[in-house]
Design brief:
The protein is mainly alpha-helical and 344 residues long. 77% of the residues lie in helices and 5% in strands. The protein starts with a strand and ends in a 12-residue tail after the last helix. 6% of the residues are buried. InterPro entries: BICD, PDZ, PDZ_sf.
Length: 344
């Protein structure tokens, strides 16, 4: 019958670390407890977590590696009573901790990817705003062309105004000339005794013509005044509108440049963080694979040692049974002694 005793693992003496369970026959359980409880272990420098091999209940081999323990078992196959085999639990715990760290880093990597996606969306939005801004710039360029066209029209109106003023000057000269002709005609009529009715008729015609000319001059002056005011006002309004749009465009461009610079910095930071997270994940993955490999190797060694232990225990049981058979044979041997025959 076998009685397992579970003990915790500790690192000691820089050797390879093992957790262990003690598997032994029932008559050796007290011997094991005596090693741990009665101070034999502490006097011999044995601590929890050390690999121990007991031979003949007296020889104690401490802090053994699996290879050393296997060698001792092969040397003393019939005298081995105690062997510590089980794989360390702390390595499994560290493996779980590394997996948890790996999951955490994967979550952080996913977060950084989400940040990159948001930055990409912001960049796309910024490009759309830039496209809108380009459209506004094209509109402003069209307004500039319209402004240049208005300037040409205004210059033409100024030329027309100069022509009207020249015509007005000519009309004034013509009016003066007409007055002189009237005076000359009046003076000539006095000298030549021309008929007064004809002179009055000519005078009336000239007055009518003079009034017509005055009306035309007044109309031309009003048209000239309105033409002069309208281009100036339109030019000033167009200039103010152009300056306002140019100011808004400059402010928007400056704002978009700052946002683009900030987005680039955020993208670079996110890229560096993603690179570091990826490198860390690969490192932890390599550690996990190494620990899994060492775990697999330790399991194989444990199975080997367990098979050796079972063989040793089986041999021990066979020897015990043979001893019992021999003892029973020795007990039966005296009863088979025959008494000598009595003399008659």
């Amino acid at each position: 019958m076998y009685a397992p005793i579970e003990l915790k693992l500790k690192k000691s003496y820089g050797e390879e670390t093992y957790g262990f369970s003690i598997s032994t026959t029932e008559n050796l359980v007290h011997f094991v407890r005596g090693i741990i409880e009665n101070g034999i272990a502490s006097r011999n420098g044995i601590k929890e977590g050390d690999c121990i091999l007991a031979i003949n209940k007296a020889t104690i081999h401490m802090r053994l590696k699996n290879q050393e323990a296997t060698s001792l078992i092969k040397q003393n196959p019939k005298q081995v009573h105690l062997l510590i085999l089980k794989k360390a639990q702390y390595e499994l715990e560290s493996l779980e901790a590394l997996r948890a760290k790996l999951l955490k880093l994967e979550e952080e990597l996913n977060k950084s990817r989400n940040v990159e996606q948001s930055l990409a969306a912001d960049k796309q939005k910024l490009e759309q705003e830039n496209e809108v801004l380009r459209q506004k710039v094209s509109d402003l360029q069209a307004s500039q062309k319209e402004y240049d066209f208005m300037k040409v029209e205004i210059s033409q109106l100024i030329e027309d105004q100069e022509l009207v003023e020249a015509e007005n000057h000519k009309f004034i000269q013509f009016q003066l000339l007409t007055d002189l002709q009237i005076e000359e005609a009046l003076s000539s009529t006095k000298d030549q005794d021309i008929d007064k009715s004809e002179l009055l008729q000519q005078n009336n015609k000239l007055k009518v013509l003079h009034n017509i000319r005055k009306e035309q001059i007044a109309k031309l002056r009003s048209v000239l005044k309105s033409n002069k005011i309208s281009p100036d006002t339109a030019l000033q309004n167009l200039k103010n509108k152009y300056e306002t749009k140019q100011k808004i465009q400059d402010e928007t461009l400056e704002k978009l440049r700052r946002e683009l610079k900030q987005f680039k910095l955020n993208a670079e930071t996110s890229s560096s963080q993603s690179t570091s997270y990826t490198a860390r994940c690969e490192e932890l993955q390599a550690q996990v694979e190494s620990l899994e490999h060492s775990l697999k190797t330790a399991e194989e060694e444990r199975e080997t040692l367990n098979s050796l232990l079972r063989t040793t225990i089986q041999q021990n049981e066979e020897l015990t049974e043979r001893l019992k058979v021999l003892e029973q044979g020795n007990e039966r041997r005296p009863s088979r002694i025959t008494m000598p025959p009595q003399k008659v």
